[in-house]
Amino acid sequence: xDHQAKLVSLLFYSAEPIGIGQILKxxxxxxxxxxxxxxxxxxxLEALGLMVISDSDTMQLTVQSGYSSLIEEFYETTxxxxxxxxxxxxxxxxxxxxxxxxxxxxxxxxxSEQSLRNLxxxxxxxxxxxxxxxxxxxxxxxxxxxxIGSIAELGDKNE
Amino acid sequence: xxxxxELENFQGPFDxxxxxxxxxxxxxxxxxxxxVTSEYLEYISKIDLAVxxxxxFLFVAAKLALDKSQLILRIEPEDDESEINIAESLKSYQxxxxxxxxxxxxxxxxxxxxxxxxxxxxRTLLVNRPELDVIFKGLMNYYQNLPKTKNIKSNKLTIESxxxxxxxxxxxxxxxxxxxxxxKSSSRPxxxxxxxxxxxxxxxxRISNSNQKFLLEVV
Lengths: 159, 219
Hints:
- The structure holds two protein chains of two kinds.
- By secondary structure, chain A is α+β, with helices and mostly antiparallel strands.
- Chain A has two domains: 3-74, Arc Repressor Mutant, subunit A (Orthogonal Bundle); 84-154, Winged helix-like DNA-binding domain superfamily/Winged helix DNA-binding domain (Arc Repressor Mutant, subunit A).
- Chain A is built from eight helices and five strands; from the N terminus they run H-E-H-H-E-E-H-H-H-H-E-E-H.
- In chain A, the strands form two sheets. Chain A has a three-stranded antiparallel β-sheet.
- In chain A, helix 1 crosses helix 3 (31-45) and helix 5 crosses helix 7 (113-121).
- Helix content of chain B is 56%, strand content 7%.
- Chain B is rod-shaped and about 110 Å long.
- Chain B starts with 12 loop residues before the first helix and ends with a strand.
- At the A-B interface, strand 3, helix 4, helix 5, helix 6 and helix 8 of A face helix 3 and helix 4 of B.
C-alpha cells in the first residue's frame, strides 16, 4: 500500500484536520517527504474536485474552491462572513505571523481584543508561544475560509 | 469648514484619519495630516469611548498636534526610530485594509470539508419506533391484569440502580428489543423505571430517529 493512498484514506476518514506529527510518526517519513506526498496527492485528487491543505501543524482533505458554490447551492449554506475589523486582524496575522497582540494593535491603532477573541472562537487563528511570548498564527480553518491550500498562496503582502 | 463624519465601519483613529483625508481628497502625507488635525481633534472631543480605545485616539491626537506644530514652526523632527510616524502608520494600515478586502473576496470561494466527524467505536442497537408504542400498551395491559398486592415492599427502589441494571442489560445484547428488556422487569415500578429510562435516552439524544428507526448508542 503506497503512502499516498494511505494519506488520503486517513484524511478522508476525518472531518477534522489531522496532526502532522501523528502522520509523520505513523508513516515514518520526514516533513519534506510529507510535503511532497501532499503535492502528489493533490495532483491525483485534482480531477476529483478534492485537495489536501495543510498549515504548520495539521493537514485536511477539502473540496476545491471551484465547487464551493455547488455545495452552497445543494446544501443551502452560505460562506462564513467576517466583520471589517476581524478581516483586518486576520490579514495582519496572515501576512505577519507569528505576531503578538501589541503589534497587531499598533498596526491598527486600536485594541484588537474583541476581534482576536472572535477569531479564536471561530478557530481561524490559534495561540503559539515563541520566545516565551504569546503570538497568533492562522489555522487550517483560515485556509479553508479564504480558499487556499497553503499560506504561500496568499503571496507577498507588498504585491 | 464644518465637517460631518459618517463612518459605517469606524474602528479607531486611523479609520477616522483615512476618512478625513479621503473626504478632502488628500494623500497620506505629513502636510495633509496637518490639514485635518483640527477636524480630528474636534471629532474626538465629541465621541464617547472606553478608556482603552480613547487612549489610542489621544495618543494619535497628541502626535498629530506635535507634528503640526513642528511643521508650522519649521522645526525638524528629532530622528527617533522608536517614535511612530503617523503618515507611515496610516500607509501601513491602508495596506492592511486592502489586504483585508482581498481576503474578503477570497472568502466568497472557500474550501469545504466534510461536515461531520465520523462516529468512533459506538456500538449501536436498533429499536423500531412503532415498537415503543406497542410495548407501552402491552405493558400497561399486562400489569393492569396482575393482581394488586396489598403488601408494600419496604426495600427502596432507586431510579439510578434500575438505570444501571437497564444499561448493563442492553449493553450485553447484540440485538436490542425493547419488549424483551421491559419484560425482564419483575414488578410494575421496575417496568415503569425501565420505560422512563428508555424515554430519558430519547430525550438525551442517545436514541435518535434515523431512517424510521431509533438508534440507541451504548457508550
